[in-house]
Amino acid sequence: MKPINNPQDLRNNYIRELSEANNSTLRAKELAEDLFFLDLTVYSKDFSVKSIIYNAFATSEIDDNIAMHPEQLQIISHIKENDASIISAPTSFGKTFCIFEYIVKYKPQNVALIVPTLALVDEYFKKIIKKYKEKFMHYKIHTNINEEKTYDFNIFNIFILTHDKIVQESCYNLIEKIDFLVIDEVYKLETDKSNDRVLVLNMAYYHMARIAKKYVLLAPFIKEINDLEKLDKRPVFFNTNYSPVVNDVKECAIINEEDRFAECNRILESLNPNDKTLIYFPTVSLMYKYITNIISLEDELDVLDKGVNFFIEWAEEEIHEEWCLITALKRGYVIHNGQIPIGTRMFQLDYYEQSDSYNNMLCTSTLLEGVNTTAKNIIITKPSRKSSKLGDYFSAFDFFNLVGRTGRLNQHFIGDAYYNKSPNDPEYRKEDAIKSIRFEITDSSKDIDIQKGEIDKHQDVVEFFKLLNISKEEYLYKIGTQARFDTVIELYNRYCMYREQLLNELQFLCENDMAGRLHLVQVLYCICEKRNGKLEANLINNLLNKRRPRIKKVVDDTRKYFKTANIDNLIATAIKLKMSYIEHTFHSKVNIVSFFLEKENIDKALINILDKKIISTIEFLYFSNVKHKKMLLDLGIYERDIEKIIKVVGDDFDDAFELKQRLIDNVKRLNDISYISKYVISNML
Fold first, then answer.
1. How far apart are alpha carbons 490 and 494 in whole angstroms?
2. 258 near 357, Cβ under 8 Å?
3. N or C: which end of the chain has fewer CB within 10 A?
4. What's the rounded Cα separation, in Å, for the pair 342 and 355?
């Protein structure tokens, strides 16, 4: 037999032996010495003298029921000894737990935790204010930055923020002092010049790392980071493949694309119905198609939990009675994707984790963003993210990041990934998932040069600045990281193409103040998105109503004029536009269009109309300039309840801990709010 040189392979053999044993506890006792020497102390527990002694010294500061495994202790020691670190470890390792352990153990005064999504903000926030609240009570917790507020950095603060808030709102100028900075999912720093958000994350890292006394970057499956010597504060790389669980991939061959759903069903029927299973789809539309074509044909559950009934009643009234999510929920499935409202996403995740009736969760790539779930299995229905084009697939890194979502310490020794593989789908090898990356901040990048003010390196940038008669300071102030330079150029070219139509619409609205803005939205959408999206423009126009209409009303009103529109697509598009596109992409691009008008010395009255009808309306609807309301929105509170809640709890709370306490203290007075908002608040208790 070929000797095993990789310690993790040897660990995997022992983990499999525990999994296959009739009595895993008894088998762990028999193997205690071997488990201990393989650093599988999570299984050797107190079954040997050495384990007893070890666990006494490795007990967590956060939770005295947990003894940290040796690799976690190494990471904490590594962080302590180095001012800058990159930590690469598998998904099931417990990297986030190490970060919280370090904070509790060494008590850095001002902490900034930077994550890519609001879902991760919520996950970190819940751990701090709920699971480990006693350990973090001396910190003020900030999930938003108020540009009108002065923060006291002589007290203990934790900022939990998405990277776009750091850069696009220039929050790095307001955070004067960082003792401990953590940036999660840092593989997203890798150069991708088609992705504006990569630029944002790199600039967040660039600005924050410069003022941080100590920083840590977290990622899975990274072999090395190239060109680290180019960074001002060079991070020390720590890489481990240690995992206390095993992830197995099982290929399920299919012949035709049409067989994917049927094969998914076959796999589901073969699994233990009591095990938690994730079902991955590359797109939201494919997920909804599966619900419509497959799940809707299944029988509804005989009895629904009272909370589920309340949620469905709310969702049918506020979102739509034909919403796919309701169809799935009635049949024992929950769903997770980036288009779902935050509160609804929290509700779904909680029921998946806690209810025996909901063991299957349909999901998209948002699960790659670091959202932690407990799953025994994952079914990968298709590896492509964007289309069915040959070659447009997940990389091995993406694939095994998904696979790593299965298996969970103290729950599942082995996580199984079932891969529906057609003849055109790629083979995936674990060794290909371990990759070397180069941060855009150290790469050859026009956009990074612009952000640093080094525009003379790029003649096209210099010529564009001359064309608009702007300085580099003005460009950074007005556009900044909202879009890459090439995106701005494309936007400017389309602005020139539709300029006359835009000015005519603005002039008409200037002369007819009570007129509707639909045609203005249509022109702006053409400028922003390279196409004439009449359906999307109609939905956006309806969603920009300051009376905050229900999505159901927006969908039904739009349906009158687009009678052939697929209802699933209509609802999904409305939710996507409302939950992300309008607030971020549309708002930032229209702001850039307004800047073009300003530089062309267009009549100020016309620019004011654009601001009044579009820009300020978006800021009003999304509470962009009212941070205490924005904090409630980001916590998952339903937007139509926010004004009611503020009237009860006030608007002078200082941080998230204080907001939580006010919500708890006044929960009995918050009767006239939606079920989903009540659920979010009760979930804080």
1. 6
2. no
3. N
4. 19
